[in-house]
């Protein structure tokens, strides 16, 4: 490592800490969302989801609590912005802050829903959102007597600014990868659809940030939602194939709901017979406890 490479170490640390935080949180949320979408079956141990959630959720605190790590990212962003005054240009994933003056003034050019398919427009919207939220936090910190006091008071805003920065990293790297040649017939098209779905779903989820910072107008936000629904229709026919592309075997998944042949109810029926309660036709305790209750005469309530 060269001596001048040490100037990039804070950026590398902030990138690693931030991506660890938002990816583990997003994965934990996705597992829980899958469980809810499976209805009551999602609670079954044979669905694999309860165990998957229990095993994965500690990742949100491994190597550091996610909120603490996002605050480290925020601290890096505040230092980066403070150094802009002295002419020190940021590098790596924070390089966009070197164009902070433009990003504070730019306006989204979307006029139709299809305009949201332009990667340049998506990227500028995410850059402007992140830059404006970071600058707003920096301005708020300047009003406190000490930085530590400010960090304690506006920590919630700092976390949101860090999340915006980290989401920009993922979106920008996804778009950057799509500029390269990708082998396979139709693969690049599907990846472009997934990239747009990911970016616009984040925009939909954090629409308040984009609108409140002036990155987009409410009408442009509505057009983004319209385009997102259209993208869902394009991705839906290939959803199963896209999931199968990960090549996770039934043994690896360990889930009757995620079996390759899709024969869910037959698998559920077979799994039910493995329960100890079904070892006999009449479960133990039936004659002693349950049958007497069924023979009782209950009074009908007057209410």
From TrEMBL:
<feature type="domain" description="Acyl-CoA oxidase C-alpha1">
    <location>
        <begin position="5"/>
        <end position="78"/>
    </location>
</feature>
<dbReference type="GO" id="GO:0071949">
    <property type="term" value="F:FAD binding"/>
</dbReference>
<keyword id="KW-0274">FAD</keyword>
<keyword id="KW-0285">Flavoprotein</keyword>
<dbReference type="GO" id="GO:0005504">
    <property type="term" value="F:fatty acid binding"/>
</dbReference>
<dbReference type="GO" id="GO:0003997">
    <property type="term" value="F:acyl-CoA oxidase activity"/>
</dbReference>
<dbReference type="Pfam" id="PF01756">
    <property type="entry name" value="ACOX"/>
</dbReference>
<keyword id="KW-0576">Peroxisome</keyword>
<feature type="domain" description="Acyl-CoA oxidase C-terminal">
    <location>
        <begin position="120"/>
        <end position="295"/>
    </location>
</feature>
<dbReference type="GO" id="GO:0033540">
    <property type="term" value="P:fatty acid beta-oxidation using acyl-CoA oxidase"/>
</dbReference>
<dbReference type="InterPro" id="IPR002655">
    <property type="entry name" value="Acyl-CoA_oxidase_C"/>
</dbReference>
<dbReference type="InterPro" id="IPR012258">
    <property type="entry name" value="Acyl-CoA_oxidase"/>
</dbReference>
<dbReference type="Pfam" id="PF22924">
    <property type="entry name" value="ACOX_C_alpha1"/>
</dbReference>
<dbReference type="InterPro" id="IPR055060">
    <property type="entry name" value="ACOX_C_alpha1"/>
</dbReference>
<comment type="similarity">
    <text>Belongs to the acyl-CoA oxidase family.</text>
</comment>
<keyword id="KW-0443">Lipid metabolism</keyword>
<dbReference type="GO" id="GO:0055088">
    <property type="term" value="P:lipid homeostasis"/>
</dbReference>
<dbReference type="GO" id="GO:0005777">
    <property type="term" value="C:peroxisome"/>
</dbReference>
<keyword id="KW-0276">Fatty acid metabolism</keyword>
<protein>
    <recommendedName>
        <fullName>Acyl-CoA oxidase C-terminal domain-containing protein</fullName>
    </recommendedName>
</protein>
<dbReference type="GO" id="GO:0001676">
    <property type="term" value="P:long-chain fatty acid metabolic process"/>
</dbReference>
<keyword id="KW-0560">Oxidoreductase</keyword>
<dbReference type="InterPro" id="IPR036250">
    <property type="entry name" value="AcylCo_DH-like_C"/>
</dbReference>
